[in-house]
Amino acid sequence: MFAQEFPPIIKYSPSVYGAGNQSWMISQDRNNYLYFANNDGLLEYNGTSWQLYPGPNETIVRSVKVIGNRVYTGSYMNFGFWTRQENGKLKYTSLSDSIKNKILDDEQFWNILKYDQWILFQSLNRIYIYDTKTRQFKIIAPKNGVVKSFAATNAIYFQTLKEGLFEIESGKAKLVSDDPILKKFTIANIFTTDEGLLLQTQLDGIYKLTGNTLTRVVTDVDAELKSSFVYSSQRLQDGSFALGTVSNGIFILSDKGKLKYHLTQSKGLSNNTALSLFEDKDQNLWTGLDNGINCINMQSPVHSFTDDTGVLGTVYASAIYNGMLYIGTNQGLFCKPNQSNSDFKFINGTKGQVWSLFVYDNTLFCGHDSGTFIVANETARSIFSASGTWKFETVPGNKNLLLQGNYYGISVLDKVNNQWVFRNKIQGFDYSSRYFETGKDSDVYVSHEYKGIFRLKLDKSLLKTQGFFAYKSPDKGKYASLTKFNNSIYYAYKGGIFKLNPNTKQFVKDTLLSSIFEKDEYTSGKLIVDTSNKIWLFSKNYIHYFSASKLSNQLKENIIPIPSSLTNSMLGYENITQISKSTYLIGTTDGYYTLNIDDLSFKNYNVFITDITTNKQNETFKNAGILNEGSFKSDENNITLNYTVPEYNKYINSEYQYLLEGFQNEWSEWSTKATVNFKNLPPGKYIFRVRAKYANTILQNAASYTFVVLKPWYLTNLAYFIYFLLILTMAYFVNKAYRNYYQKQKEKLIEENNLLLEIKELENEQQLMKLRNEQLSQDVDNKNRELAVSTMSLNSKNELLAFIKEDLKKTAQNDSSNIKSVISTINKNITEEDSWNVFKEAFDNADKDFLKRIKQMHPALTPNDLRLCAYLRLNLSSKEIAPMFNISVRSVEIKRYRLRKKMDLQHENGLVEYILAV
What we know:
Elements: E1 9-12, E2 23-28, E3 34-38, E4 41-45, E5 50-53, E6 61-67, E7 70-75, E8 78-84, E9 90-94, E10 109-115, E11 118-123, E12 127-131, E13 137-140, E14 148-152, E15 155-160, E16 164-169, E17 172-177, H1 180-184, E18 187-193, E19 196-201, E20 206-210, E21 213-217, H2 222-228, E22 230-235, E23 241-245, E24 250-253, E25 259-263, E26 274-279, E27 285-289, E28 292-296, E29 302-306, E30 315-321, E31 324-329, E32 332-337, E33 345-346, E34 354-360, E35 363-368, E36 371-376, E37 379-384, E38 389-395, E39 398-406, E40 409-416, E41 419-425, E42 435-438, E43 443-448, E44 452-458, E45 465-470, E46 481-485, E47 488-493, E48 496-501, E49 506-509, H3 511-514, E50 528-529, E51 534-538, E52 543-548, E53 555-560, H4 564-567, E54 576-578, E55 583-588, E56 591-596, E57 608-615, E58 622-624, E59 630-632, E60 638-644, E61 655-661, E62 675-678, E63 684-694, E64 697-709, H5 717-811, H6 816-829, H7 832-846, H8 850-857, H9 863-873, H10 878-885, H11 889-903, H12 911-917
Parallel strand pairs: 59-64
Antiparallel strand pairs: 1-28, 2-3, 3-4, 4-5, 6-7, 7-8, 8-9, 10-11, 11-12, 12-13, 14-15, 15-16, 16-17, 18-19, 19-20, 20-21, 22-23, 23-24, 24-25, 26-27, 27-28, 29-56, 30-31, 31-32, 32-33, 34-35, 35-36, 36-37, 38-39, 39-40, 40-41, 42-43, 43-44, 44-45, 46-47, 47-48, 48-49, 50-51, 51-52, 52-53, ...
Helix pairs in contact: 5-6, 5-7, 5-10, 10-11
C-alpha cells in the first residue's frame, strides 16, 4: 500500500448543475470566480454556486480566457465575449459576426491568448487576431494548420504540423525551429526560462530550446510521460510543473524534474484524464477532467492519505517509535518508515481493533481488542490476552509498573528482568475502563460512558480497591472522556468540561474550555494531550487546542477551522498524534491526514453578493439588479439574496452573518449557508449587509445592498391625495347629509312641537269643554234642582190647597155659598193641566229631547205616561208623584205597572233604571 500524503482534492460534478462532464479550458476573474469551457457552454463557479450559460447557438465552448472585465470564449464557428449585467448575470456579445463570411465551415476555436492590445482566437486551421482599439481583425492561416498556440513572456508561439515552431512578429508567422522532434511530436505547452524555452511534448517528454539547439530535459517520470500522452500542462507559481495526461492522472514535478506527487483516480482524482489545468490566485490547481472538475489545494497545511482499498480502515491510534510510523486501525497494526513514501506493512498477529499506542520506557505498547502487545520494529508480542485493553497509565513513584484499562476493569503490568509482563487484575472494580487517570493519595478516576465517573481507592500493593465512589455530578454522557492536563484531571461531555478540585475531590465546570461546546457545537467529548503539553478538543466546526501561557497560568486557545464533517473522524474515537514539532497526524475513517499548525495562515478574502431574486407568491423567481439600488413592487416582497467568499479550500468553510437594516436589529448567527430569504417584507427602505468569517477570522470587507419595497398603489402619495379628495368629498356630503338630517330633525321637532301645541290646544279645548260640560252639568243639576224644587213647590202648593180645600169642606156646612166659591178657586189652582205645563217647560229645559226619545222608542205612551216617565227620570218616589197627579200612591203604583207593560220590560229590569238610561 503506497503511503504518501497528498494535497487535499475537492471533487466537483458539474453535471449536477446541468453542465457536461468535459471542461477544455479554465480561467479566473479579478473576483476569484472560475470559468470553464464546457461541453454544454460556459460554466461559472463563484465558490458557492454554479451557473451554466449555453454557448452561442447552444454549442460547446472550447476555450475561455478572462481579460479585464470580459470573459472571452471560443466555440463552434463563433468567438466573442461575455460581460456582467446589472442583474449579475453574463451576456454574450459575438465578435465573429462581423467576419462571419471569413470563418471556415466547421471551424472551432480551441484557444484564446492575449498580447498587449490584441486578443488571439486559435482554431485548428488559423489564428484570428483582434485589435481591441481599432476593432479590426487580422488572420494568420498557415498552410498546414495550427496544432496549438502558446503565450510566453513577450511572445506568441504556435506549432504547425510537419513545419515546426513559429513565433508571431508584426502580425506574421516567423519560424523559430524546424527541429525534427518539433515536426514529429505535438507540443502541449511552452514555458519561458532564463536560458530559453521549455517545450512540453505530448508523447516525448520535456525539451529545452536554446537558440536553435533542442535538448532533452531529464525528469523522474520520463518513461511514464512517453506512455501517458500529456494533454495539458501548467507551470505553477512555486516553479514546479503540473502535467495532465489522458490516462495516467496528473504529475507534479519540481523545477528540477523531481516527482512530488502523482495524482490518479486511486489517489483522489475523479478521473485519470486531465483535459485542462489552471492555477488560481491562491495557488490551487484546477483540472478539468473527462468526468468532472477537481481542485487540488497545493498550498494547504493539510495533506491526506486516503485508503480507497479499505485495507487500512479506520485509524484509531498512531505513534512515532524508533523512526517508524505506526498506525492502529480497526484492521490491525500497520507501520512504515516515517517521512517516506514506502508502503504500509501489516504487523502479523495484530488482526483486529487497535485502541491505543503508548510509548514508555523505550517500549511501544499496543492496546488491542485481544489484549496487550509489545511492538518492536515489524513484530508484535502478546503479554496479556484475558481482556481487551483500552489504554495505559504510569504509576506515580514506581516506574516499573503500568496500569492498563481493560474491558473488565484495571490491571497491572510489571517490568521483571527487563521484560514487561502481566501481574494482576485489581479486584473490586469490574467496569470497562476506557478512560482513567491517577490522582493524589492512590485515587484513580474512571470515566464510563453509560455509568458516569467513579473514584477508586487502591491499596498500596495495587491488588484491590478499597471501595469506589460513583459521582452523581457531572452527569454521564455520550462520547464522554477523561484526561490529565497540567497535573489536573478534566472530564468532558455534552454538558461541558469539568476540572477536578483536588481538595474537595469534586468536579467544577471550566468556563473557558466549556465555551467550545456552546451554540450546539458538541460532537464529541474526546480530550487528547500531546507530547508538547497541548490539550486538543473537537467540535462541530473546529479543532481546538489549548496550551499553557508562558507568563501566566491562563490557557491560550487556538482554533483550527476544520469542521468535523470534512475531517471524517470517527466520533468518540478522534485521535491526534504529534509526529514533529508542528505536524500532527489525525486519524479518519478512511486513512489519516497530517496538519502543520505553523502553516495555518490564510489570505484575507472578500465577500460578494452574487445575485438577488424576487418572486410573487406561488410564482417563479425573477433576477434583480445588484449593481444599483433595487426597487421592488409591493407584491414582489419575497426576496432571496445569495452571497459568497470565492475561496476553494477543502477543509475550511466560510461562515456568514447578515443583517437587514429596517427589518432586523441584530446580526444573525454565523452559518455556512450562503443564501437567505426574506418573505413578505413590508414596504420600506432596507439595507442588506453580509460579512464573512474565514479560518475563524472576520474578513475586512462587508458587502451591502440597498433596496426599496414600494408601497402598494393604494398606499402611494397619489393614492393618499385621492384619498384626501375622497375624504373631502365624503366630508362635504356627510356634512350635507348631517345638515339635511338635522334640518329634517328640526322640522320634525317643529312639527312635533306644533303637534304638541295643537294637542295642548285640544287638551285645553277639551279641558274647556270639560269645564263647559261641567258647567252645563252644574246648570242641568241646578235646573234639575230647580225643577225638583219647582215640582216640590207645586206638590207642596197642591198639598196645601188640598188641605185647605178639605178644611173648607168641613166648614162649608155653615157658610156654603162663600166656601164653595173658595173651593172652586182652589180646584182651579190645583188642576193637573197647569202643574204639568209648568213642569214640562222646566223639564224640557233641563233634559232636552228626553220625552221625544222615549216617545220614539215607545209610540204607545200617552201624555200621562210621558208625564210619569218625566217624574221617574227625576227619581221621584211614588209618594212624591201621587200629589202631582192628585191621585193616591196606590194609583201611582198601578200607573207604573201599566207603564212597564207598555214598555215591555222584563221582570228583572227596573223601570227607573231603564228610564234613567234612555
